Amino acid sequence: xSTQDERDQVLARIEQWKxxxxxxxxxxxxxxxxxxxxxxxxxxxxxxKAAYGGPQLDRLDDGxxxxxxxxxxxxxxxxxxVVTPRKFAGGSLGDLAINGTVNDLAVMGATPKxxxxxxVLEEGLPMDELRDIVGDVAAAAAKAGVEIVxxxxxxxxxxxxxxxxxxxxxxxxxxxxxxxxxxxxxxGDVVLVxxxxxxxGMAVILARGDLALDANIESDTAPLHxxxxxxxxxxxxxxxxxxxxxxxxxxxxxxxAAAANVGVSLFxxxxxxxxxxxxxxxxxxxDPLYVAxxxxxxxxxxxxxVDAALEALRAVPVSAGAVAIGEINDEHPGMVVAxxxxxxxxxxxMLVGAxxxxxx
Length: 360
What we know:
This protein is an alpha+beta fold. The chain has two domains: 4-175, CATH 3.30.1330.10; 182-347, Alpha-Beta Complex (Phosphoribosyl-aminoimidazole Synthetase, Chain A, domain 2), CATH 3.90.650.10. Helix content is 32%, strand content 22%. The chain has nine helices and 13 strands. The protein has a seven-stranded mixed β-sheet, with helices on both faces. The chain has a four-stranded mixed β-sheet with strand order 1-6-4-5. Helix 2 (38-52) runs parallel beside helix 4, helix 3 runs parallel beside helix 4 (127-144) and helix 6 (225-234) packs antiparallel against helix 9 (306-314). 45% of the residues are buried.
């Protein structure tokens, strides 16, 4: 799936499937759906295969045979997704499962191509909700232009899981001459972020309804591969990229500082935070630097390539808010320091504990 016409066709098929799904009389998931018999076959045919089936998945083999272009390497990743609630402003469990895996491949410099999706379902999960989740998986995959080529389903007893867990694996194609990594980072390089931070974590917190806060905050969940590809095209010497999910931007920068044995300086006045997110964080005593993102990435580029990098990123809708937020130095190796607009500074340590549980 590479052209817009093909993606539009898939999305149209998904909408048609939602309106007229294949016959499945069960209203909730039962243990029989995980027993490997007729009920399992019906669930696979009527829900999963009907939503995102394709030439590979329709074969229902135990694996997929994939052709890798000559002169390329593959990047392989895996992830698991569980979030409460499963639907929130701007996204859902299904969106996260696809976008999170696509983004892990994208920040490695790879072009995402193929995914597998496995579901652990709790007995009693409403079938209509499962259809919605699977529909979101299919729509997100179509939007990202990736093919779901294999999967699996297990059902556990009522109370043994939180409704639905999704596990994904992804394969992307990487040019043989592309080099990205913390070992490429040098003092003097500049740190960029592709847009506002903290949107996803705060959207999920508000969706739970436990807080008496009324704020217009939506998750930023989105595929990033077009933005990372644009950056790498404009700045082939890009040093390193990462998607700052759990632990937020602060944890991603600390991982970089430790791996590269460099100092990372962040400039607080340059950090992009939407006002509603900033306000909610202040009320809850949270630092936006530690709040999760699902549609942003942080990158390090040579100082003389910053303008080219920002121009390329801002030309892609998902990274239109890209800004430079800091620099790499050798003054405090292994540490991240945030500099305030008033001339002060503070150490930004790795996240301790879990201030925002179950955000992805």
